Amino acid sequence: MSARLSAAIVWGAVLLPIPLSAQVRLAAGLDTCASRIAVSVPGQGRRKIAVLPFPDANRRASALGTYISEELVTRLVNSGSFDVVERGLLDQVLGQLKLGQSGVMDPGTAQQVGKIAGVEAVVLGTITDLDTTVAINCRLIAVETGLSLAAANTRILKDDDVRGMLAEHGSSASAEPSGVKSERVGRTIYFGGDWLTVRFESIEMVENSFLRLTFSVQNSFDSDVDLRLNNPAQNTYVVDISGNSYNFMSGEGLQQNFTRHIRAGENAQFSLLFKIPAATVRSVTLRTTWDAYGQRTSGSKRFVQENVHIPGR
Description:
Elements: H1 3-11, E1 15-16, H2 26-40, E2 47-51, H3 63-78, E3 82-84, H4 87-96, H5 107-117, E4 121-130, E5 133-142, E6 148-157, H6 160-167, E7 183-185, E8 188-191, E9 196-206, E10 210-219, E11 225-229, H7 232-235, E12 237-240, E13 245-252, E14 259-262, E15 267-275, E16 283-294, E17 298-309
Parallel strand pairs: 1-6, 2-3, 2-4, 7-17
Antiparallel strand pairs: 4-5, 5-6, 8-9, 9-10, 10-15, 11-14, 11-16, 12-13, 12-16, 13-15, 16-17
Helix pairs in contact: 2-3
C-alpha cells in the first residue's frame, strides 16, 4: 500500500454526516459523496481504485444502486485524484469470485475484489429507502488492511426518477437495470418524456471483426438538441456471456466529441463500432450512457440492451 494511503489510515475514517434538513437532489448528493471521498486521502498523484455496485439495505440490486456507482466513477475520475478500473474488468472480477452484482459486500470481500482487480482501495456502499428520502452511505476501504480510509453519506429527495429506479429490482438480485427511463433496459431511451427518442435498431458484423450497432434518433422538440456519448472510453462497451468486455472504438454519424446535433423535428441515424476478435462470441450486452443538451431538455441516461444476437454466429 502506498505511503499516501497509509497516512490516510493514521488520520482515521472521515465521516461527514448530512443533517436531515439538508436533503438534496440526486446529482448534488453524488457530488457531495465524491468530493468528500476525494479530499479525504492526502498526498499528490492519482490512486487506483474500484467502485462496486450499491445494493439496498436488503442486499437487493436496483437501477438506482447501479446508477449511483456509475456516476461516482465519473465524478471520482473527474476529481483528478483517482484512476478507476472500468466496469467490464470489475464485472469479470465479481464473476470470478462468484459474486452477483448485488452480493453481500463487506470489507473482507471488498479486499478480495480489490486484490484481484489490482487496486489500492475500493469504494462500497448501500442505499436505504426512507419513505420520502433515500440515504446513500459509502466507504473507501484500503485493500491491504481492510480499514476504512473515508466515509461519506447524504440524503436525497425521492423525486420521480429516483422512485422509478428504486422500483427496478429482481428476485434474482441482478444489478442490471430494467425498464426505467433514467437507466433503461430495452430498445429505446427517452429524454423529456417522449420528445427526444433514441432507439436501438440493428447489429451487424463488419469484416468479421467489428460490430456495428445502429441507432435512430427522433427530435420532436421545437428546438435543436445535442446528443453526446458520456465518457465513451469508460461508459460505452459490450460484454459477452463469459464476461469479456470490448470497448467502444468509434462512431459513425457522430461529430466532434462524439456528439450528434439533431435539428428540431429531425430524424437521424448513427452507429457505434466495437472490435470483437473472438469468432465464438454469439451475443453481447450493450452498455452506454448518453447526455442530451438543449433548450427544452438536458440530462444523462444509462442504456442497457441485453442479449443482442450477433448475425451469422
